[in-house]
Amino acid sequence: DGDLTTLTEYGPLTFKTKFQGKEGASFALILRVTTDVETSVEMIFRCDNAGRERQFQRTFRADYREFIDEVATGCSKSDLPTDSHTFIVFLATDYAAYLRLEGQPSKTFALAKIL
Fold first, then answer.
1. Quick one: which of 22, 33, 39, 70 could link to 4 by a disulfide (CB 3.0–4.6 Å)?
2. Where on the tree of life does the source sit, at the highest rank (predicted)?
């Protein structure tokens, strides 16, 4: 929903994971949390769609729903939620976070910090 004020105590963090579900090894998500000027979350999805590499990238403040619908449509093997209006980032430790994408179906991804 764009309210990221709870993340302001953290410095820039970058997380990346490879999914082991339907997406296989050709689907990656990179999550970057920054507080430079204002708190924001940057999400990058990389995937292979019928042999063609695709990348979707956006920094979120208010336009998340439009972006995630574009990714879910553009990555043919993706089981990302559609009509997702909210994402939640849970910082588990200094080196791990969870990203929950609300929608149909909701999905949670475990992420590890890139050093």
1. 39
2. Eukaryota
Number of domains in the chain: 1
Copy the structure tokens of residue 85: 């209006």
- Backbone phi, then psi, for 19, in 5-degree steps? -85, 145
pLDDT at 3 over 50: no
Phi, psi of 74 (to 5 degrees): -80, -15
Spatial separation of the C-alpha atoms in residues 48 and 11, rounded to whole Å: 32
Residue 2 has pLDDT above 50, yes or no: no
Query: Helices (H), strands (E): how many in the chain?
Result: 1, 7
What is the model's pLDDT at position 63? 66
- Can you tell me whether residue 14 is helix, strand or coil? strand
pLDDT in tens, 15-33: 565 555 554 556 677 777 6
In order of 36, 49, 62, the CA distances from 110 in angstroms are 25, 23, 23
